[in-house]
Amino acid sequence: MNSMISYQGHHIHYSLYKNPTKPSLLLLHGFLASTYCYRHLIPLLQKDYQLIAIDIPPFGKSDKINTCLFSYDHTVESIFFILESLSIKNITIIGHSMGGQIALRYAFHYPNQVEHLFLLSPSSFMKKSPLFSRFIYHNRLSPLIAHQLLKRKGVYEMLRQSMYHDHFITKDMLKHYKEPFLDKRIYPCLIKILNDHQGDLSEDELQTIQTPSTVIWGKYDEIIPHEIGYELIRFLSDSTLTILDYTGHLISEEAPYYIAQRLMNIKH
User: What DSSP state is assigned to residue 201?
Assistant: First the structure.
């Protein structure tokens, strides 16, 4: 079931795959992606989980309005609002890249609600740069520059950099990953994201998270190097790290069966 929900002036798209007798699993995608990145994983889990996949604004089918707040904490509160509206109290979260940092923040703010974290190459230890953020945000040319940089890089090259196996990149993938950038409203939003970025959780904050955490990283991740994973689990008291060979940053695209198998082994 695809739905839109209004939260503080913007509409957020989510998909709910009802299975009320099973544990609930929330899927959070990364920067410049959408719930589309979980399309291989979802069919593998539908029998064993009730799934909620959210398009984090301004990505996917959610609103692209640059007057919205795009901070991590605001995103966490919007997710809490969605789960409350669905009467979901306990949740396992799978988060990729930026979605991994949002998952960590959700567990930080709502520790009693999160049963397990599955973190796929999660954003970690990035600091906010206030001076750079203000410069970018107040430069009227920034959205145009962002548009040109992404156009020059190209979606195909971005996917190649994010994946180990080039042959996994299909025409359908290119179409769906390219689609958000055809809407010019997203570029001011990308600049606003840089301005609203809070920085990732600190080492002290990470140490307060007691939620069991399964961290999975691609050995050939060119976006967030897998070595960061070893540092991350030092601060998560109940965590394990698996490094997947022949895998890049987009783990859900390259290793959905492995992820599904690990999720099946969770004891609820």
Answer: P
Give catalytic residues, as residue numbers.
Answer: 97, 249
Tell me: the pLDDT tens digits for 62-121?
999 988 888 999 999 999 999 999 999 999 999 999 999 999 999 999 999 999 999 999
CB-based contacts of 161, cutoff 8 Å, min separation 6: 222, 223, 248, 249
* pLDDT tens string 9-62: 889 999 999 999 999 999 999 998 999 999 999 999 999 999 999 999 999 999
Task: Please measure the distance between the N-terminal and C-terminal CA atoms of the chain and give it in whole angstroms.
Answer: 25
User: Residue 6 pairs with which residues in a beta bridge?
Assistant: 11
Per-residue model confidence as pLDDT tens digits over 199-252: 899 999 999 999 999 999 999 999 999 999 999 999 999 999 999 999 999 999
Strand partners, 119: 95, 215
Sequence-separated contacts (24+) of 3-11 with Cβ below 8 Å: 4/61, 5/81, 5/82, 5/85, 7/78, 7/81, 7/82, 8/68, 8/69, 8/74, 8/78, 9/65, 9/67, 9/68, 10/57, 10/62, 10/63, 10/65, 10/68, 11/62, 11/63
Strands (E), 97-176: 114-120
